[in-house]
């Protein structure tokens, strides 16, 4: 077993409350199996561009949106 | 010169934000019975662009990826929307996310005010449009037929306006044809696209005959009994409506006017009018 050094954070991902050990938006996206997928992210209502995901650290209670293309009118 | 005019000139092309479009029909991609029918309907419509959206993706989800591959295979321009956004901030953030995912700075800007009518929140719309145009977006605002709102949107940097014909998905056609005519007359140079409320090809033709530059529709095709045939029907009606506008429609009259020449009518002197005959 590996020793977990980080403390799990309670955050919201697409409206659902989740516990995560991800420390950044990039780690969260990777942990959800969406790395490299054509998605876009926002944190607390603000756009987080792809190049900014590594530097965007998660905080307790953050509301993260992860979206992808869909049909629309 | 002996150049012969072609019998029927094709309608002129529409240019939006410096881009010449392949047709005057923009088609939505929602509510089709299957991805296959969607793809065939887009082809049959000859659409210049298709509208697309962003929705939440699941862990390890590939729904978005699959949809985007389908759209990219059609080789048609995409116009991302901000459908469902209720605030300026939601709309601006959604537009920013869409620009990254779809690699386009075009956005169909929607800020929705009311669940029953899906009416644009025109105050939020103007505010969001100003923010986005400053950030380099080419904004196509979904708006009402209101002239003063149109002025504000142009002031906010929009170069195209997309007034509704009727509420989204209602299929009612041009609910306020008089106001739409006024808008067209008031902004003769601004590209105006009818967006939402179209139910039948005749509605689209009516808008085009009025001088509207294009029509954006979705439900009328997607929920038709045969969406592919309906897409083709709309393509024809929009082209016919545009050609009619460019050809110059006759004005309406209150009374009849004979189309066959009166001069030289046989027996003309004998029965000029029934009343005259009965007087004898």
- Quantity of strands of chain B, as a count: 10
- Provide the CATH topology of chain A: Ubiquitin-like (UB roll)
Q: In terms of structural class, how would the helical and strand content of chain A be classed? A: mainly beta
Provide the low-confidence segments of chain A as ranges. none
Give the helix level of chain B as a range of percent.
25-40%
> How many strand segments of chain A?
5
User: What is the string of SSEs of chain B from the N terminus onward?
Assistant: EEEHEHEHEHEHEHEHEHHH
Report the β-strand fraction of chain A as a percent range.
35-45%
User: Which regions of chain B are unreliable across 5 or more consecutive residues at pLDDT < 50?
Assistant: 276-280
At CATH's second level, what is the architecture of chain A? Roll
| Cα radius of gyration of chain A in angstroms | 13 Å
Order the strands across the largest sheet of chain B as they lie in space.
Answer: 5-4-3-10-9
Query: What's the overall average pLDDT of chain B, rounded?
Result: 93
The H/E string of chain A reads EEHEEE
- The portion of residues assigned to helices of chain A is under 10%
Shape designation of chain A: globular
Distance between the termini of chain B: 60 Å
User: Count the helices of chain B. How many?
Assistant: 10
Oligomeric state, counting identical vs distinct chains = heterodimer
